[in-house]
């Protein structure tokens, strides 16, 4: 055994050995229980960051642990390779998105291999490869054929810098989720997936995901946003057969509706204002609002404003003539995009009514009180009794909700309904680097699907981006010009929009089951064996976007008869962020960690001025607080990096980076190495023990502690993924082993206790620091990788202590301690406590009123 722990040498050796042995290659084995462990695959940005390292280390520990527990483990890796990030990076670096992507994949693959992750690289996929997106295009055709995909003209979220459409979920506080620039509304023809068809099912199953964090299912429930209410039609004055449809959760206030507000994006806005004196004002208002953040959160903070369209509608229950406005607080994403405004009972409507001098009519009053609209200072939003509501006067408003809705249904002017906040998923992107949408536009036939035999429609990877990053596809005749498959016209045009990159990530986990299958999206028998994913790991930032879309896509596949399940992920772990303090120099601003010199106080290495250590924040290039994993790998090795990522915090909590902590983990591995180097030559030929017979003193405690550690580590990994406490348990075991005097000659049972302890330590640490443990395992004389060994099991009776420390209290305060055999009866414990010299001094002449004994724990003497 080498006298020094040399991580670079050991890690290179074992990574090569694992690859030579195809150690991580896996196949379906019907006679063996499967375990599908998956981390969210990365976008190939060029370098892995510490967030990647932590995420993938967590997954790798679980994968290795489950394999040692006897499971057939699928643990694949691939690349979420399409999308705007690659285009934007290519523009910035003056290169092609394809070149940029493939070079980054190669670089990141090598980084991941250096970390020792147990991926089956034979299953590697890249979503930008035609053999992958071919089947995505095929699925699009099936969805279009079955009414699940459709095209319509609509207002969309448009990002000018990125030159593309964004889904609602990709707009964060009015800004593009990628470039951070403001998003505006723009009207375009778009392709949509009908995710709303599954809104109810997606919502119901949020309660059937016990392995998911509550915060994630709550976020999805809120995004789906189910509301019970009524749909009511308000006829437009002077327009035969034209009405405004409204969804409301408060049909009890219908008699108090005095004006109507339409979202600026509502299709009726230009139609109602056309040929009126208000048309120009309305158009200007719509254009101005289109530049604002249209998220519900942002709109809530705006001053309420609007413009009269020049039209009126009629309240269907009392005939009131209601002016129709377009208002900034009305949103197309809620209900129908039209708001029946009841200013007496909605604060937003109340503010708008007073601003534009619109009538306020009270229809709900508190019991035994009359409200005067002329003197009201705010809307009344509590429950009460109906007034000014015709035949419904005197009813409690909650009861009136159903009664008024029934009345509307009988009259044919409304109905009970459910509304969802969730909107259909707009998947069209006016960008180049994405999967082409397999549709053709023919002057005679309209929009027709590409024949399945012509798939894949290959994205030309030799096309150059246009100025500003615009897509070349619309002007690339070799791509865009095609023959209509229906009528044969030669001047048909391909669809030049590409699919949202979240389409690729919504089914990649199924493709991993059979990545080389060329007869469909996946081999049905492989998916039947492996799916659903048993444990999925990734950031909570994907709670709505990726996770909701993946759940939806799986339902599409189930509806089409391609899979037999609805939920893709049985258990979900959302790991915390990796954070580090920011460091600021008064002259040079934010500094990188390597620009700081540490003397008595930290100073800037560029100018020697004292620096300010700021608050701990998520690692970010903009904050200059990023730790490069390559630096850690070069200095400490992969195993130390893995150990710190797991030891510093539970996986669901944020990890605060600490250089001293990394160094401490390195020293721990050195300590284990030295112990093995010291003991292994002295215990040659040791045999496994069946019990503690023949052991005494520290060796008996070592045997007991080893069984206890197996139990604790197994529970911490299996039940909670609390690797930090599992590592702490092993550290405690090492402390016990270190305390044993190594000067005396060992008897055979004592050799066995030490050997059992060292071997167990190596097995328990092996999922966490695999190179280190494989090296120790080989040194111990084993021929196969430690990963092929079974996980150790404990004997419950062996964890029981022969002696326990008993605490003595006087009136509840700790005064002394003593040791006693675990089977000591209560009377003996009482006598021992009362005869303790320190206790005699505390009691003195005070009479003992009561003695409380908690066996094996404490004796409390009440005086």
The helix content, as a percent range, equals 25-40%
Share of residues in strands: 15-25%
Mean pLDDT: 92
> How is the biggest beta sheet arranged?
4 strands, parallel
> Class by helix and strand content?
alpha+beta
Question: Which parts are unreliable, with pLDDT below 50 for 5 consecutive residues or more?
Answer: none
Radius of gyration: 35 Å
Number of strands: 37
Report how far the terminal alpha carbons are from each other: 62 Å
Discrete helix count:
26
General shape: globular
The spatial strand order of the largest sheet comes to 2-1-26-27
Which helices and strands, and how do they pair?
Layout: H1 7-20, E1 34-39, H2 50-68, E2 72-74, E3 78-79, H3 84-92, H4 97-114, E4 125-126, H5 130-145, E5 149-159, E6 164-166, E7 171-172, E8 175-176, E9 184-193, H6 199-204, H7 214-224, E10 226-235, E11 243-248, E12 259-262, H8 268-273, H9 279-290, H10 296-301, E13 306-314, E14 321-327, E15 338-341, H11 347-355, E16 364-365, E17 385-386, H12 397-411, E18 414-420, E19 425-426, E20 428-429, E21 439-442, E22 446-449, H13 477-480, E23 481-482, E24 492-494, E25 498-499, H14 501-504, H15 508-511, H16 524-530, E26 533-539, H17 545-559, E27 569-575, E28 578-585, E29 589-591, E30 596-598, E31 602-604, E32 612-618, H18 629-635, H19 638-647, E33 655-656, H20 659-679, H21 697-720, H22 723-738, H23 748-765, H24 770-779, E34 803-810, E35 813-821, H25 826-834, H26 837-843, E36 850-854, E37 858-862
Helix pairs in contact: 1-24, 2-19, 3-4, 19-20, 21-22, 21-23, 22-23, 23-24
Describe this structure in a few short sentences.
By secondary structure, the chain is an alpha+beta fold. Helices cover 34% and strands 21% of the residues.
């Amino acid at each position: 055994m080498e006298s020094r722990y040399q991580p670079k040498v050991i890690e290179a050796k074992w990574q090569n050995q694992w690859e030579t042995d195809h150690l991580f290659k896996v196949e379906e084995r019907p006679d063996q229980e499967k375990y599908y462990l998956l981390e969210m695959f990365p976008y190939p940005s060029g370098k892995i960051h510490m967030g990647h390292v932590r995420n993938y280390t967590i997954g790798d520990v679980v994968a290795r642990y489950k394999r040692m527990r006897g499971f057939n483990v699928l643990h694949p890796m691939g690349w979420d390779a399409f999308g705007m990030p690659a285009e934007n990076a290519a523009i910035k670096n003056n290169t092609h998105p394809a070149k940029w992507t493939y070079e980054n994949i190669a670089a990141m693959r090598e980084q991941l291999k250096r970390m020792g992750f147990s991926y089956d690289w034979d299953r590697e996929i890249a979503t930008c490869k035609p053999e992958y997106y071919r089947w995505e295009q095929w699925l699009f055709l099936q969805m279009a054929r079955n009414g699940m995909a459709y095209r319509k003209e609509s207002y969309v979220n448009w990002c000018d810098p990125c030159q593309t459409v964004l889904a609602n979920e990709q707009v964060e506080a009015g800004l593009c989720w990628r470039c951070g620039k403001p998003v505006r509304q723009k009207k375009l023809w778009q392709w949509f997936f009908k995710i709303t068809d599954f809104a109810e099912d997606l919502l119901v199953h949020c309660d059937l995901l016990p392995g998911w964090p509550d915060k994630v299912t709550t976020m999805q429930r809120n995004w789906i946003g189910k509301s019970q209410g009524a749909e009511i039609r308000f006829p437009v004055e002077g327009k035969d057969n034209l009405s405004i449809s409204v969804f409301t959760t408060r049909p009890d206030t219908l008699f108090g509706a005095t004006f109507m507000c339409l979202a600026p994006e509502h299709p009726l806005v230009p139609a109602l204002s056309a040929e009126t004196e208000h048309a120009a004002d309305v158009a200007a208002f719509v254009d101005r609002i289109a530049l604002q953040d249209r998220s519900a959160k942002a709109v809530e903070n705006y001053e309420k404003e609007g413009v009269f369209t020049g039209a009126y509608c009629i309240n269907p229950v009392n005939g009131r003539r209601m002016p129709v406005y377009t208002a900034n607080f009305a949103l197309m994403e809620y209900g129908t995009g039209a708001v029946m405004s009841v200013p007496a009972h909605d604060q937003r409507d109340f503010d708008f009514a007073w601003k534009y001098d619109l009538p306020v009519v009270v229809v709900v009053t508190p019991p035994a009180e009359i409200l005067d609209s002329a003197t009201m200072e705010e809307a009344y939003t509590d429950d009460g009794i109906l007034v000014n509501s015709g035949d419904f006067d005197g009813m409690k408003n909650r009861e009136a909700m159903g009664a008024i809705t029934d009345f509307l249904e009988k009259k044919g002017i409304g109905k009970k309904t459910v509304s969802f906040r969730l909107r259909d998923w707009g998947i069209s992107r006016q960008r180049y680097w994405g999967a082409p949408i397999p549709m053709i536009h023919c002057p005679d036939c309209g929009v027709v699907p590409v024949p399945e035999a012509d798939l894949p429609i290959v994205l030309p990877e030799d096309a150059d981006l246009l100025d500003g990053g615009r897509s070349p596809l619309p002007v690339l005749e070799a791509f865009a010009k095609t023959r209509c498959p229906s009528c044969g016209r030669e001047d048909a045009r391909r669809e030049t929009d590409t699919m949202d990159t979240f389409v690729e990530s919504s089914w990649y986990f199924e493709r991993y089951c059979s990545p080389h299958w060329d007869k469909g999206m996946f081999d049905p028998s492989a998916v039947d064996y492996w799916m659903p994913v048993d444990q999925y790991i990734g950031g909570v930032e994907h709670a709505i976007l990726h996770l909701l879309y993946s759940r939806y896509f799986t339902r599409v596949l189930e509806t089409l008869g391609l899979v037999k399940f609805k939920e893709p992920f049985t258990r979900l772990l959302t790991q915390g962020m990796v954070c580090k303090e920011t460091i600021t120099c008064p002259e040079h601003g934010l500094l990188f960690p390597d620009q700081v010199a540490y003397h008595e106080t930290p100073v800037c290495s560029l100018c020697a001025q004292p620096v300010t250590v700021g608050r701990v924040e998520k690692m970010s290039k903009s904050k200059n607080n990023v730790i490069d994993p390559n630096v850690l790998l070069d200095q400490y090795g992969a195993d130390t990096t893995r150990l710190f990522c797991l030891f510093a915090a539970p996986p669901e909590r944020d990890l605060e980076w600490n250089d001293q902590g990394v160094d401490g983990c390195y020293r721990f591995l050195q300590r284990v190495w030295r112990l093995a180097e010291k003991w292994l030559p002295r215990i040659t030929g040791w045999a496994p023990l069946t019990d503690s017979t023949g052991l005494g003193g520290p060796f008996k405690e070592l045997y007991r502690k080893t069984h206890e550690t197996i139990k604790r580590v197994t529970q911490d990994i299996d039940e909670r993924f609390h690797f930090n406490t599992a590592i702490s348990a092993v550290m405690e075991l090492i402390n016990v082993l270190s305390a044993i005097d190594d000067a005396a000659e060992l008897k055979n049972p004592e050799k066995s206790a030490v050997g059992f302890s060292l071997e167990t330590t190596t097995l328990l640490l092996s999922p966490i620091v695999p190179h280190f443990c494989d090296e120790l395992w080989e040194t111990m004389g084993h021929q196969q990788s430690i990963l092929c060994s079974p996980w150790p099991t404990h004997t419950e009776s062996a964890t029981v202590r022969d002696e326990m420390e008993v605490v003595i209290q006087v009136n509840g305060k700790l005064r002394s301690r003593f040791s006693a055999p675990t089977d000591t009866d209560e009377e003996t414990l009482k006598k021992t406590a009362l005869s303790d010299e320190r206790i005699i001094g505390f009691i003195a002449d005070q009479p003992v009123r009561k003695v409380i004994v908690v066996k094996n724990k404490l004796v409390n003497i009440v005086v």
